[in-house]
Predict the 3D structure of the following.
Amino acid sequence: MTSKNPNTISAIEHVLNPELSRKLTFFLYRHHFLILYIIIGVLSLITEIFCFRGLEKMGVPTLIANLLGLFAGIYFAYWMNIRFNFKIPYAKRNRALMYFVVISICSAFINFTFKRQLNQLGWSYEQARFVVSGCLFALAYMFHRRFSFVDYKKVGVAIYANGIEDIAKIYNKIGAFPDFIHVDIVDDTFGKPSDDPRAYRLEVIKAYWNKKPVHVHLMSRKPSRWIKDIAAFADTIYVHAEIDDNINDVISQIRSFNKRAGIALTMKTNPETIHPLASQIDSIMLLTIQNPGHSGQQFDMKALSWIDEINHWQERSRMDLCIDGGVNENNIGLLNVENVASGSSVLNNQNPHRQIMRLQTSSNYEKI
């Protein structure tokens, strides 16, 4: 797809030969977290050293200047990463900050221990700090990805569990690029499905994407009849707020299989109606289209106010929020959530891999 407003990436494509520009674009997309983390890390070290030297010149004791410079660098790195790199939702930022500070302080302690040895060999503060930080970089990055930034925005591809979807063809299109696989099961109690749902198709899906979390969305007014069959292949199971079964019993049933329980809401149901259940569930999914169960519809902008409302719930810090319906490269940057599911935007795209990466980066590297 040709960019309408070329930025850095499209400028590269004009300068370099097509094959080299394709490889460079792919590299930037696939390693965007790492690249920005490195840049931010270098800037945070410069911030730390600048603060340290400035405070030292002002007569502040060396130890205090060191500590103040360190915390200035840590906060700078944290703020820049959540703002421009990992895009942590507001509701999860306190937890991200806690992990980031703990990991950074542990890394700094190791750093200063080795730095002292280099200082004794005649190295300057700046030289020792940069060299040791570089050596510890990979370890710190691994821990930050595992703990501090675990709630960054993830993209899943939506697949229907029916007899029509060609799972092998979809796998060949998207490979391992999605962060998770989102599976819709629509039965005749919810609406007229395009084809009979097949629970066994989940086994096929899990076999293809065996290292990816599988989120199952049960579009059924009687979800209890499906849970036993799908539990072996699902990591998260969403049921609707508007069901004929007892919602508390259904949540308990999902929990009995050690699966994450979620509630799905259509645009006809205000989130406040399920707020009393917030302490019992792990995730909420908003179906941000007018007619759930059919792909290719437009995103309902009213959902933005509902996202903001849910993000202010006290229970939000322990729950995930997922958006399903109408998500594309033009609106994903507006979504202050952890998870988004996209079907036609990816599967109908000429380059599904690149489209997934566009969504994963909120189109930061390209104007579509």
